């Protein structure tokens, strides 16, 4: 269970969030593989051997890796801007986002007795 009760605390990163191993490299690798796959598909479409013109595969793979890194950067910028807007809104309207008291399942669920 999350120990966070304050809505503003949810949107602040205090350096405690560690990205996983695959998180920063997933999009570049996936886009690089897609680029190589596009080169193979183009060769297949022109009825050439799929691995002929290996320089095309390398170029498409490199373009894919660059595009994946660019997409990661843009996504991170978008998410940071969104979090900043939400954080600012919560700071301006604290009465709309009260700190809620934490409840356990025992307090939320009603007692239940099976009928047999």
TrEMBL record:
GO BP terms, alphabetized: mitochondrial electron transport, NADH to ubiquinone
Main location as per UniProt: mitochondrion
Pfam families found in the cross-reference section: NDUF_C2
Localisation per UniProt entry: Mitochondrion inner membrane
Keyword Transport in record: yes
InterPro entries in the record: NDUC2
Membrane topology note: Single-pass membrane protein
Residue spans crossing the bilayer: 25-46
Superkingdom in the source lineage: Eukaryota
One GO CC term, this protein: mitochondrial inner membrane
UniProt keyword annotations, A-Z: Electron transport, Membrane, Mitochondrion, Mitochondrion inner membrane, Respiratory chain, Transmembrane, Transmembrane helix, Transport
Family: Belongs to the complex I NDUFC2 subunit family.
Functional description taken from the UniProt entry: Accessory subunit of the mitochondrial membrane respiratory chain NADH dehydrogenase (Complex I), that is believed not to be involved in catalysis. Complex I functions in the transfer of electrons from NADH to the respiratory chain. The immediate electron acceptor for the enzyme is believed to be ubiquinone.
Protein name in UniProt: NADH dehydrogenase [ubiquinone] 1 subunit C2
Species the sequence originates in: Drosophila melanogaster (Fruit fly)
């Amino acid at each position: 269970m999350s120990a966070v009760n304050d809505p503003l605390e949810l949107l602040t990163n205090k350096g405690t969030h560690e990205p996983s191993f695959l998180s920063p490299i997933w999009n570049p690798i996936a886009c690089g593989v897609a680029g190589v796959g596009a080169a193979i598909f183009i060769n297949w479409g022109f009825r050439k051997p799929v691995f002929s013109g290996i320089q095309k595969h390398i170029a498409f793979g490199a373009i894919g890796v660059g595009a994946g890194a660019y997409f990661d950067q843009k996504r991170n910028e978008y998410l940071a801007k969104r979090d900043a807007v939400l954080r600012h809104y919560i700071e301006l309207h604290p009465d709309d986002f009260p700190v809620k008291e934490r409840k356990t399942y025992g307090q939320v669920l009603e007692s239940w007795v099976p009928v047999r």
